[in-house]
């Protein structure tokens, strides 16, 4: 049995605007796809509460559900918008200094950053989520 995990979803401003203009939420897309998940807003672990106030969208589900949902979401957004949708997997990694040591903040916690995982164009439909985030945008950025 796989446990639920938090997966951060980053919608490009263009996709976000499209969904807002059409009064569609990310949760609505999951419901339309028949996928049971919890969608909530939370703090992006990269921001550490300093400077950035925007919440991140978090999906609570098993990794298998997220992996299965990704191509379905991509297809739903494409059908609704009439535009190609690109999905990129992102991983949360600690920042390292020039010597390869992990950089810590004032409280001794590692400073984190999101890194895109390179994927071949044909492999986008067969995406597997092993990291902590997914980025959805129009076109093949």
Give structural notes:
The chain has 141 residues and is α+β, with helices and mostly antiparallel strands. The protein contains three helices and six strands; from the N terminus they run E-H-H-E-E-H-E-E-E. The chain has a six-stranded mixed β-sheet. The chain starts with a strand and ends with a strand. Residues 120-130 have low confidence and may be disordered.
- Taking all residues together, what is the mean pLDDT? 78
- Percent in strands: 25-35%
Helix/strand order, N-terminal first: EHHEEHEEE
| Structural class based on helices, strands and sheet pairing | alpha+beta
Oligomer: single chain
Short description, anyone?
With 141 residues, this protein is of the alpha+beta class. It contains three helices and six strands.
